[in-house]
Write a structure and sequence with these properties.
The chain is α/β, with parallel strands linked by helices. Helices cover about 40% and strands about 15% of the residues. The strands form 2 sheets. Strands 5-6-2-7-8-1-9 form a 7-stranded parallel sheet. Strands 3-4 form a two-stranded antiparallel sheet. Helix 9 links the parallel strand 7 and strand 8.
Amino acid sequence: EAEDYMPWLESRQGDIDWYYWERYRKHLLTTKKFPPHVVRTLDQITDKVLDRMEDPSKAGAWTRRGLVVGHVQSGKTANYAGLICKAADSGYQVIIVLAGMLNSLRNQTQERLDADFMGWCTRLKDYVGASRFGSKRRPVCFTSSIQDFKKATANSIAMNLDAVNEPVVFVLKKNKSTLENLHKWLQEHNKHNLKEYSMLLIDDEADHASVNTNKEDKDPTAINRAIRNVLSIFDRSVFIGYTATPFANIFIDPENEDEMKNGELYKDLFPRDFIL
């Protein structure tokens, strides 16, 4: 972990209403029949990751970059679903998940988060999954299990997010034009001024397509640059890659040319703050 790591979770633990996490925990134990010791371990690990992110209520501009490594088929999605619940509870207001390069993978991840985090099926417009353990609140989602991010749809969700006071969620395909659309929308049509909120971006299969594979003197690869552009909009952001094969991410050059030229905003996705 980085030398400037400052634990914050313990001091705020008692003030946080763990609404989304508690719902998810009961959903795992009751609906999914996870053994209690597995849920306890998941609780401990997600606390560890959350603590190495930043306190979302911390003022000023900050960024964190991290990597979570798990074995193949070891429950990485269950882990980041839990982390998303806790991030939302502790005050992260914008949550973006990059869910693979295929529509089928994105749809599948959205369905999973519908059940585990939102408690609301974005396809059938009905309560599902974790809502069994509380349905008085739910996040605002700009994508559905049958539709990736589209600017027109995003503009039609014209609610006042300050009044809603719930986290805003995007589940995106890892695709250059989707990411560029989101970037443009956040810059131009974003009535809700989302960039003022603290943001968590989770990159599933972070070794796939996200790493800049171009030589130092060339511009970054399209998806890598698109992810960095989205991150650069937010003054307070956390980027966490999830992967079973971390080698590509670990070998990102932490002091590359692009970031020397464009400064802090364009720091690459090297997990400089923690690898767990």
